[in-house]
Structures are given as structure tokens and as C-alpha cells.
């Protein structure tokens, strides 16, 4: 077994999307090969209703799949196929945009005004870019949770792990998507397929992702006051950790434990032509999508 080294640790950056929704983006709209097959990851946790209630009005998607995971609050959604529904706390929605879909997502806070969740974009290979759009909504109660003897908890959202298989399937990137909590002071190792790109996203507590005996942080070179220095970086809330090659990931939980998403997928390794919510392989395919949006032929008839 070989430990995957931490090759990059960075904080999610504040941005706005939709009709003025405040969120934090861990990655997206940069180098698409960096975490291939994944294109974008948004953290839309927010406790101020005016910062999210205008939501994401009608907009198109083509050539990708989106996985939305709600922790608190609800998201009402509807699309050009006539699908409507509501995602509640703990629920997951997988959407294959395929050949094209128009949809809207309207978040609502819970009784405390909290709207918490994440959205991941996964690329589709060229052979599936124009596949028929489809949805899969999964309730939180249907997501298996494994509790280990040391108190570690793992929710298996997509893929198989420790003998359990998540309810979301059929995603082209064949990802593994885990919600993991490791209790205070516990050091834990998790297997990750050697041939997958992998990242973690911390959203509660702190910990060190390395072969460390104590949660002192990962030794990284950073710029401080214009000079490069080596410091110990303890990964905490809204931190993305990108891993190198290997077949396992080790984390040492801090004094309050750590909760994070561990996500991996098989790289597609194809050219990417990307404009907003439309991701194709060539610039001509992008231009074709834009023409179809303008002339009303973007949505393809069901076969």
C-alpha cells in the first residue's frame, strides 16, 4: 500500500453565482486537467437568507453531470423536461445534462435560516456528451452510513466503500463520493483506487492529511510577507486538499475531530472546451450550442 501525498492545500474562494448567491468555490474555471474528471466544486453553505434566497433561475447545461448534496435547508428544482422536486437535508441529486437541459434551483433556509450544501460538476466523455438528460433524486435515509469501532462515520453517497454501495449510480466518471467524520485524535487511513484522481474537502473541524503522528499539520512551502517559508498547515473549514498518486489517504483528526468529503474519479483525458454551464470537446461544439440556445433548438426531443 502506498500513501497518497498531499500535493496542494488551498482555501475555497468567495464568489457569487446565479441571481446573487454567495458561495465558496474550491475549484472551477481553471485548468480542467487538474482534477479530471471533475470540473467544479462549490460550497454553498450560508446562514444569511438574503445571500442565497434569489437562487439560480433558469439556465442551461450541456455535456456534464452535476451532483448536489444538501446538508441543511431545501432546494426546489424544476427543468425543461417537466421534472419538479425538492431536496431536503441529507438528500442528493444527480443530474446528467447530456445533450442539454434548462433548469432552475431555488434554495430555502431551514428554521435557523441555514442553507448548507455542495455541488460537484463531473465531465462527460465525448461519446456521452449528447446523451439524453436524466435525473436521480436520493433521500438521505437511503444513503448507507458505516460506523467503525473507533467512531469514524462514513456516508457512501456514490461508489462502494467498506462493503457498502451508495444509491447514486450510472455516473460516467464512475466516482467515489464519501462524507467522512473522524473523531478527535483518531488517525485513519482510507483506500482510494490507484487510477483515480482524488481530493478532500474539509467542512468541519481540522486535521492533517499526511503520515503524521500528531495533528500538527502538513509541512508546506508558502509565501509570507513576500518570502517563501515552510510552515505547518492544519487543514480546516473550506479547505481543498489535492492528492498525488497512491492507493490510500491518511488523516489525523484534530482536537474537535474532522469532517470532510473524499471524492475520486477516473480521468477522462479528453480536450475540454468550456463556456459557463456548457462543456464540450471543441470550440465549434461550443459555438453550435450557443447557436442552438439562440434559435430555440438547444433542447433535443426525447427518443
Automatic annotation (TrEMBL):
Residues 177-298 form the Pirin C-terminal domain. Residues 22-121 form the Pirin N-terminal domain. It comes from the Bacteria. It holds the Pfam family Pirin. Belongs to the pirin family. PANTHER family: PIRIN, PIRIN-RELATED. This is Pirin family protein. It comes from Mesobacterium hydrothermale.
Amino acid at each position: 500500500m502506498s500513501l497518497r501525498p498531499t500535493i496542494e492545500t488551498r482555501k475555497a474562494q468567495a464568489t457569487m453565482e446565479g441571481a446573487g448567491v454567495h458561495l465558496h468555490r474550491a475549484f472551477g474555471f481553471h485548468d480542467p486537467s487538474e482534477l479530471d474528471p471533475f470540473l467544479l466544486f462549490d460550497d454553498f453553505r450560508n446562514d444569511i437568507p438574503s445571500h442565497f434566497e434569489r437562487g439560480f433561475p433558469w439556465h442551461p447545461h450541456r455535456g456534464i453531470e452535476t451532483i448536489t448534496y444538501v446538508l441543511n435547508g431545501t432546494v426546489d428544482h424544476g427543468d425543461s423536461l417537466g421534472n419538479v422536486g425538492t431536496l431536503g437535508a441529507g438528500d442528493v441529486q444527480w443530474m446528467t445534462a447530456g445533450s442539454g437541459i434548462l433548469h432552475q434551483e431555488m434554495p430555502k433556509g431551514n428554521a435557523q435560516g441555514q442553507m448548507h450544501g455542495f455541488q460537484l460538476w463531473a465531465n462527460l466523455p465525448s461519446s456521452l456528451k449528447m446523451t439524453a438528460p436524466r435525473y436521480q433524486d436520493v433521500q438521505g435515509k437511503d444513503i448507507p452510513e458505516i460506523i467503525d469501532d473507533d467512531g469514524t462515520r462514513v456516508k457512501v453517497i456514490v461508489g462502494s466503500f467498506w462493503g457498502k454501495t451508495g444509491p447514486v449510480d450510472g455516473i460516467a466518471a464512475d466516482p467515489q463520493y464519501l462524507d467522512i467524520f473522524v473523531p478527535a485524535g483518531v488517525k485513519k487511513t482510507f483506500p482510494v483506487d490507484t487510477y483515480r484522481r482524488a481530493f478532500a474537502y474539509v467542512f468541519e473541524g481540522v486535521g492533517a492529511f499526511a503520515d503524521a503522528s500528531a495533528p500538527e499539520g502538513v509541512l508546506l512551502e508558502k509565501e509570507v510577507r513576500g518570502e517563501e517559508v515552510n510552515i505547518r498547515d492544519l487543514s480546516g473549514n473550506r479547505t481543498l486538499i489535492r492528492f498525488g498518486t497512491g492507493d490510500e489517504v491518511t488523516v489525523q483528526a484534530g482536537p474537535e475531530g474532522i469532517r470532510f468529503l473524499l471524492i475520486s474519479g477516473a480521468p477522462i483525458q479528453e480536450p475540454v472546451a468550456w463556456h459557463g454551464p456548457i462543456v464540450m470537446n471543441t470550440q465549434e461544439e461550443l459555438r453550435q450550442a450557443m447557436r442552438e440556445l439562440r434559435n430555440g433548438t438547444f433542447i433535443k426531443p426525447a427518443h
